[in-house]
Give the backbone structure.
Amino acid sequence: MNWNLEKYMNLYRHEEVFEERFSLLMRALQYAGEPEEKATVFVEMIAFFFVSEDLQKVDELLAFLEDNNFFLQNVCYYRGLIEDDKGNLDGAEELYYKAIDQDENFNKPYFALGFLYDRKGDFEKALFYYKEYSDMLGEKGLEDPTVYNDIGSIYIDMGYLEDAKVYLDKSLANDPNFFRALYNMGLYYYKKGDNENALAYYERTIDAEPFFMNSYLNISAIYIADERYDEAIEVLTRGINKNPSPDLLYNRACSYAKTYLYDRALDDLKRAYHYDKDIFKYAIKDKDFEAMDLRGIFEGGNDDIY
């Protein structure tokens, strides 16, 4: 690789500003003479355009690599990601395996397979590929808080709580503000029956990512179970101010109804209904709203509904 090309590629890899990264890639491409050198830049461009969701550009660059027989492991991997995004998990799975066949030391498809099997509910395979990916990083002296968290999350789902904590601790040791690991640590403590620590970690999750609604929902669930409805309403209100999702609105409506604030409960149900018409199906069966004439309000296209 010529010196100028190498310089700009190194600058690109260490640049954190998204817009500047593309500019550096274009500078690198100016110095890429041989097809092999262009292919090196194109691999990074594919990653850039994939994150930017410009799949047409991704496809054009993949076609160049494929036609010239360069970096076929990357071709298979990114085509797998595209199929994954379409919901074609079987097609994605096949392409990820092809990427590994092209280069068994290429670590990205191992993580992709772990994530795929995690979504399929095949936890044993998911753990295998996540750990393979983690081990491959470890051989290079690298760690990834995301994969530690994902392993911990699977162990929680499997009921292996102490195994989960080992990996969640590793994740947070690498990134103390990684909100998914903080959230899962809250879930760990909740399942252990330690609501005090669960609440503390859910609050830390909110500090790290205030738009993640599950944190507010889980805190409110603990308060509601203890009949601490005012505190549940407060935390749900905080969440609604960030992200007025139907789930948050519905749960606050439940808390209002439990404290006989039926007008406020109805206001929240109307707002939730505006976002999700299926809310009505759940609300008319919910014991929290038995004292309210929901059927008369929600049926027949009532003009009072937002």
Notes: The first helix runs from residue 3 to 14. DSSP finds 18 helices and no strands in the chain. The chain has a mean pLDDT of 91.
